[in-house]
Design goal:
Blueprint lengths: L3 H11 L1 H10 L4 H41 L7 H6 L8 H6 L7 H7 L2 H6 L6 H12 L9 H23 L9 H15 L1 H9 L3 H6 L3
């Protein structure tokens, strides 16, 4: 429990506008708002290992699928470049081309934004990448379902997870989000690639423990 003196000092450091979000969610009770702020930090921290493994899993799996169509040098492939969307708030082609000075495909892959991998789950890549290779790269997915349905689900879930990841990275509130659902999204996507990795991640994170302890 926080004392009134602690709340006053810490909220002053946090800043009034930032703290007001938690105060509003706590019916104006400053001590409860401080407890919620503290919990929000712990929840954000608990998600980081899961999000880290998920991002690595996705980028390596998607890279494998792209490689099957465009070769292992796909980050430098002109044919792949022109397959990418070249407009919108996030421009995948511009993002990839901005890394062309990197010496190896691996360096490019490691530096691409998470949004790039999200955009790889759009329908424009169905015929060349996902129709032939979804099953061989996401081999543990429920492949009795149509690949377009699975790819669409991945796009939706990765989008939600990217928003969560960005809020955590910018130290923003996540307490109003459906965190259990987004945790399940992350684990499900990992499971589509590897059930052993899914089991390892499930057993070695504190997300559910922290969520169950919300004030």
């Amino acid at each position: 429990m926080f004392s009134e003196e602690e709340v006053s000092a810490i909220s002053n450091v946090i800043s009034e506008p930032r703290f007001s979000t938690y105060l509003s969610a706590s019916d104006g009770n400053s001590v409860e708002a401080m407890r919620l702020y503290d919990w929000n930090i712990r929840a954000s921290s608990a998600f980081l290992p899961v999000l880290s493994i998920l991002e690595i899993c996705l980028r390596n799996t998607i890279s494998e699928a792209i490689s099957k169509s465009y070769s292992s040098d796909w980050p430098f492939s002109g044919a792949f470049h022109v397959s990418l969307a070249n407009k919108g708030r996030f421009n995948p082609r511009r993002e990839l081309l901005s890394h062309q000075q990197k010496p190896t495909p691996g360096k490019v892959i490691a530096d691409l934004k998470f949004a790039f991998w999200e955009k790889m789950f759009t329908a424009r890549h169905d015929e060349v990448i996902w129709k032939p290779y979804f099953g061989s790269t996401f081999g543990k997915a429920p492949l009795a379902r149509d690949f377009r349905d699975l790819r669409g689900q991945a796009f939706s879930q990765v989008g939600a997870i990217r928003e969560l990841r960005n809020r955590i990275a910018h130290h923003e509130p996540i307490f109003a989000r459906d965190l259990r659902r987004e945790y399940d999204y992350a684990l499900e996507l990992i499971s589509w690639r590897c059930d052993v990795t899914h089991s390892w991640v499930s057993k070695n994170n504190a997300v559910l423990e922290v969520l169950n302890g919300r004030p």
